[in-house]
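User: I'm putting together a teaching handout on how sequence relates to shape, and I'd like one worked example. Could you take Ribonuclease P protein component from Neoroseomonas marina, show the sequence you're using, and then write out its predicted structure as tokens right after it?

Assistant: Happy to. First the sequence, then the structure tokens directly below it.
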Amino acid sequence: MSGHAEQAEPRPGAPAGRLKKRREFLRAASRGKRAARPGLVLQAVAGEPGQVRVGFTVTKKVGNAVVRNRARRRLKEAVRLSLPTEQVAGWDLVLIGRDGTGQRPFAKLIEDLRGALKQAGVVR
């Protein structure tokens, strides 16, 4: 066995892309549809046809770096496990962590994501 790590295979259900630039987040905030749930806030705006891009943000109001990072990791995992990639193709999604994101039961967080996608009109 060599000392090199093998490349990980892309996970099924993983989003096609990430939103990373500030202007992409601002575009979703200004022109996007919003849906608030106890565990998260979703902003959705039409993007590239056939592609899904997801961005994550948790503000300092939520807590210190440890708390914010935990909330962000939980949001990423919820997206990885439950985002219906085919159904949301053509959307740019921004998930915003809330005070309860870090402590919310994970099953409820996934329900929040699915409900927010329906409320924003991203999926039916």
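A couple of points you could highlight for students: The helical segments are 22-31, 65-82, 106-119. The mean pLDDT is 89.
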